[in-house]
Amino acid sequence: MCGFCGYINQAGIPKETIENMANKIKHRGPDDSGYFQNEDVSLGFRRLSIIDLAHGAQPMYGDNNSLALTFNGEIYNYQELQQELIKAGQTFQTDCDSEVLIRGYETWGPKQLLSKLRGMFAFVIYDQKQHQVFGARDHFGIKPLYYYDDGTNFMWGSEIKAFLGNPNFKKEFNEDLLAVHLSFEFIPSKETMFKNVYKVMPGQYFIYKDGNVTTDTYYKYNYDHIDNSQTIDGNAQQIEKLVDDSVKAHMIADVPVGSFLSSGVDSSYVFNEAAKLQPIHSFSLGFNNSKFSELSWSTKFAKEIKQENTPITMTGDNYFDFLPTMMYYMDEPLSNPSAPQLFYLSQGARKDVPVTLSGEGADEFFGGYNTYLEAFTFERYQKWVPKFVRSGLGHIAAKFPRFHGRRFLIRGAEPLWRRYYRVNYVFDEVDRAKVLKNPKLNRDTAEYSKHIFDEVKGKDEVTQEQYFDINTWLPFDILHKADRMSMANSLEVRTPLVDKVVANFAATMPTKTRITFKDGKPVTKASFRKAAASQVPDVVADKEKLGFPSPIAQWINDPKYHGRIVEAFHSDIAQRFFNVDQLDYILEQHAHGKSSMQKIFTIYTFILWYGVYFPENTNMHYDQKVVLTPNDR
């Protein structure tokens, strides 16, 4: 696992700029560094050594030095591809997956190379013969890749903060996206909260040539081949084989591999499969308050399968003291309250191992979120109640004060792309109108993301919701925080359930094998749970999903931390973007159990993020509260 950056040379940029940029992301690769510069481009690389420790230095070069590669990630089928390339006449100087990318590019060209890869990756190849820069990101966005294009300057990097080391980077807040952030807690598109900075989307590549950048898609997850003849038993048997194969592939390393372990079925299943291959050290996080702690579950399970487990306990001080640092390492504001836990879990794991497995992805691919269940209710409502009746009831309900069933009637009159809860995950349009100081910033966030639902128009609602989550929630929230919080600690996290082979099979599963009903009660991830139940105890396989629980809702009301939030809510940053009276009202309502913790956390973390990245625009210098991890100091 590594980090890289680069830029198209412009007159007047000091030669040491590339090293300054790479040092901004040193935490991604503390073991080694490497640079390439010529009259066209500058490439920088920071390495975390995982495979072929002696020979994996980058940039890596092709024949006659006509190609230069910088690569972040792991190619899990690199040994198979290596043999295929040797048969095609290639010779290899190393046994690392990086060289497969160079030789594959030479032999097959970029598109065919991408079609063959299985792994998590972001890489850039400078092609001196073609005078172009080619960059690509993995199928589901496990590894990050950004570029900056202002029409004159073009640069790229594993993290946005790398651009801060380049004097031609104009750092500007993309204020037009504030309402989108308040709705989703992330930006569900290629845009970012920095002007002219863009994500390379999952399954996409870019080519920069002759002053122009173009992007294209090489992989798109779809539900075009659903097989309605499939059964839960048959799916479960296939999932067993796929998970076993994926975990084996994800265990390939020349360093020790550990595993995150919560009380849930996903991480327990992955951990159990890994333990069949070799002894593996697991790491679990909890709190002193047992109501929110999963440590008793995870410790017991590790002991049951005779594997080591290290419990890590987090306090309120750990949590709140870390938040400005979290905003620095996130690059963009992200208000997922589980992120600080993931940072401390990664910090604890890194003391013993440089690589861990994790269980992300099962909920999105196999139908694990309880929120998918409401689709069945709305589909029945739409089937039996005519549209004009639903529209009338929704219109009338909207005019009345709150009453039981009001929200259902309003949403029941709306199409899925507008009512799906992720579209208004934190603030809906009405709430945003109250908190935003500039009413012109409020926008229809459902329209902003409607095109994603349009791509699966005609599919059942559960499938549409999963598709939306796979293309937004998974890459821009779940995988984003996993990458940033682990790499801040120079820890590589691997996700065997976010895997091309596993996911492509999940796309063939009908809804009835993803979510079923037993004794009148819904069973989410039905086939996946059945597969897991054949490998782990039933008490784990059938356990209700908890997410990553924390006492943050209680901590917000604790005077020790409440005062910090109040200070932020009355800062010059808050006054610039928000109606402070409304922020006070939300805090007051939360104290009485009538307001969402997520609303408070989203506003608070945005204020911290803005103070970290734009300290010159504020009187409160949150950047001074950022505590860099050891490899960045």
Automatic annotation (TrEMBL):
The keyword Manganese does not apply. NCBIfam families: asn_synth_AEB (TIGR01536). Pathway: Amino-acid biosynthesis; L-asparagine biosynthesis; L-asparagine from L-aspartate (L-Gln route): step 1/1. Keywords: Amino-acid biosynthesis, Asparagine biosynthesis, ATP-binding, Glutamine amidotransferase, Ligase, Nucleotide-binding. It comes from Fructilactobacillus hinvesii. Residues 2-211 form the Glutamine amidotransferase type-2 domain. GO terms for molecular function: asparagine synthase (glutamine-hydrolyzing) activity. InterPro entries: Asn_synth_AEB, Asn_synthase, ASN_synthetase/amidase, AsnB_N, GATase_2_dom, Ntn_hydrolases_N, Rossmann-like_a/b/a_fold. It catalyses: L-aspartate + L-glutamine + ATP + H2O = L-asparagine + L-glutamate + AMP + diphosphate + H(+). The keyword Amino-acid biosynthesis applies. It is an enzyme of class 6 (ligase). It holds the Pfam family GATase_7. Belongs to the asparagine synthetase family. This is asparagine synthase (glutamine-hydrolyzing). Its EC number is 6.3.5.4.
